Structures are given as structure tokens and as C-alpha cells.
Amino acid sequence: MKKTLLFLIFCFTFPQLIQAQNPGDTILVQTFIHDAWTDGNGNTTAPLGSARDTIAYFPNDTSLTFEKIIMSYNMRCKDNNNNNPGGNSRVGCGAWDYSCHTYIHDSTRIDSILSLQKSHNISNFSGNTYNYSINPVYHYTQYIQQTANATAGTASEDTISIGSGIDSLDFVVATDQKAHKSQFLYLADELYLLSFGPVNQTINALSLNILDGGTYANHLSIKLKLTTDTLLLSNNPHTNGFTEVYNSNTMLNNGINKLYFTTPFVWDSVSNIIVEFSLTNTTPTSATLVEGEQANSTLGLYSSDANYITVNSAESIDLPVSALSSISNEVTVSFWIYGDENVLPKNTTIIEAYDSTGKRTLNIHFPWSNGRMYWDCGNSGTSSYDRIDKAANLSEYTGEWSHWAFTKNASTGSLKVYRNGLLWHSGTGHTRTIDIATLKLASNGASSAYFWDGNIKELRIFDKEISPSTIYDWMNKRADNTHPDYANLVAHYPLWEGGGVVSLDETNSAYANFSGNVLWNYDRGHQINQFFTQTNWRPNISFYQGNYTLTFTNDTLLDSLVAPSNIVDAYAIVPNWGMLKNDSIANISTNSYWEAVSHTYDINGNIISSDTTTINGTITISDLTYYKRYPMAFQIMSFVTPYGGGVNFGAKGKTWYFDVTDYAPVLKGKKQMTVSGGGQWQEDLDIKFHFIVGTPPRDVLEMQQIWRPQSKGYSTIMSDGAFEPRINNMLPNASAFKLRASITGHGADGEFIPRIHYLNIDAANPPIKSWQVWTECSENPVYPQGGTWIYDRAGWCPGQATDLVEVDITSLVTPGQNHIFDYGVNSTGSSNYWVSNQLVSYGDPNFALDATVVEILSPTDKIVHSRNNPTCSNPKIIIQNTGSSTLTSLTIEYWINNANNPEIFTWSGNLEFLEKEEIELPSTNSLWQSLDTNQNIFYAQSKNPNGSSDQYQFNDLRSANFEPTPIYPAFFGLCVQTNSGVTNSLTQYSETSWDLFDDQGNTIYSSGTLLGGTQYRDSITLNAGCYRFEVFDTDDDGLDFWANNDGSGIVRFITTPISCNAQRVKDFDGDFGRSIVHHFRVENITTFQDKDKYPWEIFPNPTKNSIQIKGFIDEETTLNIYSNLGKLLISQQLNFQGIISKEIDLSDFPTGVYFINIQNTQEKIIKKVVKL
User: Fold this and answer.
1) How far is 295 from 553, CA to CA, in rounded Å?
2) What distance in Å separates the CA atoms of residue 956 and residue 944, rounded to the nearest whole number?
3) Residues 6 or more apart from 20 whose CB is under 8 A from it?
4) Which residue from 324, 319, 317 is spatially nearest to 462, judged by alpha carbons?
5) Do the Cβ atoms of 103 and 675 come closer than 8 Å?
């Protein structure tokens, strides 16, 4: 007797050693179970992004061998909810077609992935050949200056002098700074008292009294502006509306320095005048003291606060977060930026924070490639977050400095964005809170992508929503302890240091760390528009009006600036072969060089010319190859979940079976098992391993991973950046070898376009195996589905396992020798391929003469064969030669249930070791005489291979459970309503046709050519027997597919062909893809009027285990079982005509009251059952 031994693996339950395991016994190892990771409401108890993860305890008895190892893979809609329309992947059947990569992890083995490391990292350099100088290189900016000088013979001149103080002021023309700007206000009353006349006076020059001369003010610019303001305030400085009257490199001498205007300035005699001085000294000199006096009010502003950072892709700025723990309900992030208009818009992130689980909790896309700004803030512990977004004009974030502030208040649900102190965008209803565990500036939270390009300064973070007025009042001032919300300032980076690889958080004395392309820069004097200091002092000044004879001189000047140096890091790879460690990347040197190119720019920053300087050396940047290593993960199977809409897997789910015997060397002892890829939480999963004790056709000696399974783009694959040629040593004691390949295509050009893939050994030409990775999906057994389930795909379909390709390479390799394995694909465009390849090594055949029935194709209830089942015609099986001798004949005995005498079929042919052949067995009247009305078993047994005794009889017998076909009367109607899909627009011939065959394959009825958009009704009259009804659609899209614009059609059996609305016998789903194959029987039933003789019976009631349901049905009927709370537990469609007797197993149900609902278009029966 065969025995099934259960190893239940769940929580902390460990299997006990079980003795006396004999050939034919099955050891069952339970891994994942349906409800282990759900709360009953469609929610997982694990993060949705995480893998399903468990520990499996496989048999580890070295005295045991296994004939086969079968993995049963059961999928059920979550929490047995089959009513989900597909819109929510957390309720019922998941809505999307996602991968379920199923892995067994073996920490005793090592996987490796080829990775690339640049031989050199050179800051702020993007090429591959770097010519360098060991001495500083200078860049130049070209300026054209015009100077006015008065010649002898001035006709007349009037002078106005304001101020009589004797103070020394060093902030008027600060020649000791690289960049400086000052503004001073002179009131109309002061000017009028000393006026040249009552209206529109022209000012031609001004003078300052220099107290210590001999200093240079390079690029000294003087600008004047009329204003009604009586004060100058740092929170609202004047930044435009000026007239430049002077711009020249100027020597400032002791005494009165008179500066003639190149453009006269007109005073309107009523306005106040602002005089602005700015300079840029690339090399600062000593301070310049200007004579001045103190006023009674704020009449002056000045600033040398010009530094900022420039980021240029591949930067990394890590901001400390220890002080940000107080951020929860409210936050404000603000900064000044000047985006690079030559790069933006592109996909960028200017700041991003992750929470403790690695989920986004704060992010600003500034902007995204579509030009929209995104403000994301607050999450709910998942990958979902609050967001507002708005399209931005390029000029709003490039071309000049602009101030941006982003606020969140989870209590009020408010998200807001301010530009230059004014509300720019807002949203409400955003109540998710904020938890910052990591924070990055100028890139995504991993510093790996979405790098921002431009200039940044004055970054502030508050744990409070700052008011609009405060944002406006303080945007132009550095934050300090006078700020009204200074107590809520949790991070403040002025970014004003001007050098180094860190920047100080002025609030917490912590440091932001720079790496990558982060440069220090500064604004030239005339560009300084923020961060002014207010003052009551101003310089004594004289204005001049006169009729002058002026001489103008134009000078072209080059202002030199030392080019930023490049930090050059050189690397080497230190291998760690044989260890579970990545190869080490060693920094073997770090040097500071300058690129040997000098650029000359115009005043707008455009390159005018470039010159090569002295080249001291050249570095060619190359790729260094190294390997990352991981505990080996064998992808034993990959399955894609179906589109959820319309899917009904039933209370117990549907089960697929996979032969995983090749993984026998791995499926031993305690192993981690995971399911990942995006679909792991789409449905409930129940996965078991069936270890059939016995002797396999040949022993599996070793399972080797060639490359770690992963997804890569085709260009990376073909450039050997992944799945590169690898040397494998063939197992010395093996006598046969096989390659396994599972490949799926994804991406716009990878999923829906067939491509040729190949496997190769030792660079053979042509490759040893080439094949088109392409799967026909319109015959998918899981239908109907939502989405585009009928579309053919590269190696996969929604609701199916990935195609497996197996290649025997025994003749191409030598045991004990090294061989080079390679994989490639001929593809284009944005195509990505998930690739899993293994090498299996085998021993000699264990039997000379052995054969087996490996698969029953029909009759069976396996979902993989459901397109052609149930059936009442010729059974179909697959036989295999499992002995080393050529198989030429085989006896097949087959029967149903407990038939007294089996049917016998003798096969003859020619099968070599492990070759298979599909056999169609004769369907006899006696075969079906043992058929029951509900649960049936079909048996097939192989005997007498080549007329001799089978050396291994434990694999001879195969069985399959199956349901009987429905029974229809000898007369019924057929209604076919074609949709508008046609094969030819001229002929209007429909894509759809139908045929009716008897059990010998003879055509009984045929539709012939149908017209599109037309209704047909036919009378069907049949003798008793078995029949097959087939509907075929040439476009593979059925009669009712949502995405084809063909409309919908109908196929149904009806009691009379008078009308398509007549009583229905069988309705066929119109979303069937390529075909419908429906088997049915006709018995001596000619009327539907006798059902009153067979009232519905349900017994025993109460019950402890199962119930029997008996009655009469004459059309498609739904059988549902509900709990006393109304939850649907079991749902079955009964496609049967006549008396039915069906057993329902309730043994797994809790004690309680249940309701049986039997319903069709004519009746609805509800009965109560008590489970004891």
C-alpha cells in the first residue's frame, strides 16, 4: 500500500523523523499555506513589497532516494473572495499580471553577479580620456568695459555734496572680498536742498573720499535708481530697475576719487536715489576705507555673502537626521535654487527622505521630465504617500535665483508650495504623517538616480508649517535666532563655506557630507541679491553736473579664475574567490589634478574658446570587472498571476504541478523558500512538495546555477554586462548533462515582440541552441480574465508558468573538463529579459527496461488541461521510456473508478531513453460504464515494455480525478451571435465559426462561413453518444474582448431555436480567446419536464464531514455555500443535464450553520446545513 507522509512546515512546527518509507510512498512537505499571511480582510500581515518567506524542512535521510519530486502550486483568490472585479490587488484575486519567482535558497552555495567599476572616478569630469596638469589651470571670463574721462576745457560744473562725517567705512567698496555689493539711499530732500535746479537734473559723475588708497576694485560697477522708499530693508532689497552708469577696473587712490559716468543719470527732482556699488575681485586685496557718517535711519545695505554649491549629476549629499525626529505632523523645507536650463527639465529629485522601512516620506521632484513639480510628503507606513503637483515654466526654476518653500500640515491636511514668498500651489486632504530616517539632497534617497543640476544655497528645515508672511519676510535673510520660528528650525545649511567636502548645520553643529560632483561657487558682485546687512552708515558722496568733453575708452579684459581641481581616485579589484563576499574595490590612489584645458567665457557663461594647456599625463578610464556574491537562489519555477477581473479559482483554489526532480541535490534539509517579483501577494498561495520514494530513471548528481537569475536589458546582455561567458567544470562522475532555461521578455520591445535567444558552449558557430521565446496566450486555461490576457507574450502569459526549455548537451561536453557557457538574444529597443539558467548533471540510467505513464491529458481535472476537459471521448496520455533500451512496444491498461475489467491498448513505436509520446486511447462503451455522477478517477497503467517484465513497477500506474461531462437532450437549439470582428472588410466574413463532432471525430454539424454582426439559430438533433462542440476565432480574441472594438457576441445552447432568449441549457463565455472546446453526452432524455420527480435532497444533515446533494438540473446552475455571516465559501458551476449527485467535503469547515444556495434562471433553492 502506498502511504502519504505529511511534513507540515509552518511557524515553529518541526517534522519528526518517520521510519519505514518504502518505494511508492509519498513524503509531503507543506510550505506556504493560503491564509498564513492575511488578516481575513484582504490585507497582508507583511509589507506588500517584501517577499513571501518561509523555512522548508525537506527530507534529509541519505538512505532515501526519490523517483520524483513534484511541486504542487495552488492559487486561490485572497481570503476565498472570488467576487473581486480586479480593481484592488488587496481584495480577492489580484488585479495585475505580476511575476511570482519561486526560489529555494542554499547558503552553502554561492551565486555571483558580474559588476562593473570604473577604473577611475574623476570629480566633475564625464569623459573617458582625461588629460591632466599637475599645476593649476585658469579659466577666463571676457569683459568689455567702457571708461569715460573728462578732458581739459570743461565748460561748466555744479557739485552737490551730501554727508560731512569723518567715519571710516569698509563696506562701501569692499576690495578685501571676492564679491561685494552695497546700496545707499540719498533722499530727495537732501538732493533738493543742494539742487542744480527744480526739475530733471542730469548727474554726470560722483566722487568718494578714500581714506587709504592704493587698492583695486575690479569690475567696479555703479548703478543708480529712483525710488520713493525712505528706508532700505534686508528682507526686501532692490534687485532691478537700476541704470548702470559706471563699470571699470578701478584704482582707488587716497583722497577724492571722481568717477565719470558713461551714461548720464536723470534725476526727476522728487524721488530718492539709491546708489549701488558692486565689485568682483578674483584675488581680493586689502580693505578700502571710505569716509562717511551715521544717519538716523536704515539707509544702507551691504553683502559679501555670495557662496553656494553647484551640483552636476552623480552627486551625493548626505544630511544628518538625528535632529529631525521631531518632524511628524508638520514640516517646512525651503531653499534658494538656480536650475541649469541646459539640462532641465529631466527626472530629478532635489531632496528625498526615507522612513525606517525604506519608504518615501518626503520628496520634491524639481521638476520631473514632464515639467511638473511634485511635492510628496507623509506616508502611511507603505509605499503610498501624499502628493500635490503642478506644471512649472522653465523660467520659474532656471535663469535666475528663485526661492522655494514646501510645507505640510497633516493635522489640517494641507500641502503647499511657495515661490519667491508667494503661494504657488496647494492641496488639501493630505493627512499622512512624516517619519524621516535618511535624507539626501540633490538626488533620490539612495543617491543613485534623479540627480539635480544647478545651484543651491540656504537650505532650511522646520518641524512646523511656517506661515506665508514669515516665509516672505525671511526668504532674503539668513536664518538666525531672531527668526520667529527659530525654536522649530531643526536643520539649517547656509552652504556658505566656499570650500571643502562638508557643510555645517548651523542649528545642530552637524555636518552634511559631499561626494561626487559637488562644487563651490560664488555670485559675482553685481549678482548678489540676498542676505544683506542693514546699516545706518553711508558714505559721504558728491554728485556732479556739467558740460564735459569726455573721452571714452573701450577695454577688453580677461578676468582669471583658478579652475576647480579634479579629485582623481584610482581603483583596483581584490578578488574574494570561494567566499560569500563581494570582490573588494580598493582605492589605490587619490590625487588632485586639473584638466589640461583652459576655457574663455563671455559674461553669460558661454564658452568663447578653449585652449590646451601643458599636459603632464593622460588617464584612460576603463571598466574593471568584479563579482558580487550571494547565497545561491535557485529559481525552481516562475509563475505570472492572472488579471483578477472575472477570475474564480473556487474555495480550494486551482493547482498546477511541476516536476522539480532536477533540484533534488538542493531540496534537502532546512532551506529558506521565497516568492518575489511583484505578484507574491496578489493571491493566496499553497505550495507543497511531494517526494515520491523510489528510484528515478537516473540519479541527479548535481544542480549548478550558471548565472544568478535576474532581469537585464538586451544591450547589457549583448555587451556581456550580464550573463557573460562563464567557465563551468563538468562533473567528473556524470554521464549526462542538461541545460534548463526559463526566459521571459518585458518592456515595450521585450514583452510583445518575439525574439531569438540562444545558448552556446565554447563559442560554437552556430550556437548549440537557438529558439524563439514566444508563448500563445489565447488558449490560456485561466479564462476569462481582465486585462490583455489574450495577447501573446515573450515566454509567459497571465495565469501561467514561464516556459521551460531543456537542452541535452551530453554530446557537446566532456566530464571533468572546463567548458564556456554563454547566453544571448537578438533584440532592439527597450527590451528586458528575466533569465534563469541551470546545468544539471546525471548518472547512468538505473534501468535497462522501464516505461511509465507520465501524464494523463484527458480525462482530468487539472487546470492546465481544462481547455479540453471534461471529456467523454478517447482518453489521451503521455508515455515515456525510462529505461536505457529502446522502447518499441508497451501495453496500456486503463479504466475508470472500480471497473472490473480494464481496457487494453498495445502501443508500438520507437522511443529512446527519456523520450515521450502522446497516445490517444480508444474510447469504448465499456470504458464509461463505471462513470459516476460526481467524483471519478481515470487510471492508466503501463505493462510489458518490449514484451518483457518492467524492471521498476512503482512508476507504472498513473491516475487522474475528473468530472463527468454534462448531459444534454437529443434535441436543443444553438444560438450564435457574431460580433463585428471580420476577416475581410469587403466580404464581412466573421472571424468566428463552429463545428460539432462525434467521438470518432466526424463532423456532424458545421457553421460554414458566418457573417459579422449577425445572429444565427440552429436546431441540433443528436443520437445518444459523446460529442465535441468547438468554436474557433481566427483573430484569437473571442466574441467579447474589451480591447478590440469588435463589440460582443453570443454562443449558447437553448431549449428551442425559436429565440436566442429561450431557456438556456449552456451559456459560453464570450471572452474565450482562440477557441471553445466543449464535450458533452447525449442520453435518452428528450424532455425537460420531468424534474419535479427529483426534488433536491441534502444529506446527512447534520453532518461531521461531507454532504451529498441530489437533484435534477436542465440548465447551467450555480451552487454556492455561505457561512451564517453571509461569507461565500464555495462556488461551483454545474454544467450538467439530468440527475446529479454531488459530494461536498465540509471536513475543514468550523462547527456551525451553513446555507446551501442552488440557483438557475428557473429556480432558487436555499437549505440550511449544520456542521457538527
Assistant:
1) 37
2) 10
3) none
4) 324
5) yes
For the chain, the helix, strand and coil percentages under 3-state DSSP, each to the nearest 5: 5, 50, 45
Whether the bond between 59 and the residue before it is cis, its omega within 30 degrees of 0, is no
Q: pLDDT tens across 267-283, in order? A: 988 999 999 999 999 88
Rounded to whole angstroms, the Cα distance separating 13 from 5 reads: 15
Q: Are strands 669-676 and 99-118 parallel, antiparallel or unpaired?
A: antiparallel
CB–CB of 745/140 below 8 Å? no
Asked whether the beta carbons of 128 and 119 are under 8 A apart, the reply is no
Which strand (E) or helix (H) includes residue 718?
A: helix 714-718
Mind listing the pLDDT tens digit for each residue in 746-784? Answer: 988 899 999 999 999 999 999 999 999 999 999 999 999
Q: What is the DSSP string of 536-562?
A: SEEE-EEEEEEE--EEEEEEEEEEEEE
Which residue reads 574623476 in cell numbers? 122
pTM as predicted? 0.71
- Whats the size of the chain, residue-wise? 1172
Residues near 863 by beta carbon (within 8 Å), at least 6 away in sequence: 654, 655, 656, 781, 782
Backbone angles phi, psi at 643, to 5 degrees: -60, 135
Cell of 715: 544591450
**Positive or negative, the Cα torsion across 826, 832, 834, 835?**
positive
**Who has greater pLDDT, 237 or 13?**
237
Q: What does the pLDDT average to over 629-653?
A: 90
> Residues 15, 9: contact at Cβ < 8 Å?
yes
Cell reading at 910:
520507437
Q: What Cα–Cα distance (Å) separates residue 694 from each residue in 6, 26, 665, 698? A: 17, 9, 15, 11
User: Which helix or strand (DSSP H or E) is residue 110 part of?
Assistant: strand 99-118
- The residue among 358, 309, 344 whose CA lies nearest residue 514 is 309
State how far the Cα of 703 lies from the Cα of 311, in Å rounded to an integer.
49
Q: Grid coordinates in use for 965?
A: 461531462
Among the listed residues 699, 866, 554, 765, the one whose alpha carbon sits nearest the alpha carbon of residue 65 = 699
DSSP 3-state assignment of 36?
Answer: coil
439, burial (CB in 10 Å: exposed 0-12, middle 13-18, buried 19+):
buried
Ramachandran quadrant class, 439 (left: phi over 0; alpha: psi -120 to 50; beta: rest): beta
Distance of CA 119 to the CA centre of its chain: 30
Residue type, 747: G
Output the CA–CA distances (angstroms, integers) from residue 391 to 333, 373, 907, 978, in the order listed: 20, 6, 73, 47
- The stretch 575-604 carries a mean pLDDT of 92
Q: What does the DSSP 8-state code read for residue 498?
A: -
Which of 133, 1040, 1152, 250 shows the shortest CA–CA distance to 562?
133
Rounded to the nearest 10°, the torsion over CA 994, 997, 1002, 1005 is -50
Phi then psi dihedrals of residue 188, to 5 deg: -60, -35
Using alpha carbons, select from 682, 832, 672 the residue that is nearest to residue 743.
Answer: 832
Cα separation, 602 vs 274, in Å, equals 29
DSSP characters over 781-808 = SS-S-STTTTS-BSS--TTEEPPEEEEE
Query: Would you say residue 1137 has pLDDT above 80?
Result: no
Strands 4-8 and 26-30: parallel
- The three three-digit cell numbers of residue 1024, written as one number: 445518444
Cα dihedral 148/154/156/160 (nearest 10): 40
393 CB-side CA count, 13 A: 7
Gyration radius of the chain over CA positions = 42
Q: Is 874 helix (H, G, I), strand (E, B) or coil?
A: coil
Instruction: Report helix, strand or coil for 302.
Output: strand
Distance of alpha carbon 13 from its chain centroid, rounded?
A: 36
Which residues are paired to 910 by β-bridges?
none
In the structure grid, which three cell numbers stand for residue 905, read together? 491498448
Q: Coil, strand, or helix at residue 585?
A: strand
Residue showing cell 599636459: 615
* Phi, psi angles (nearest 5°) of residue 661: -60, -30
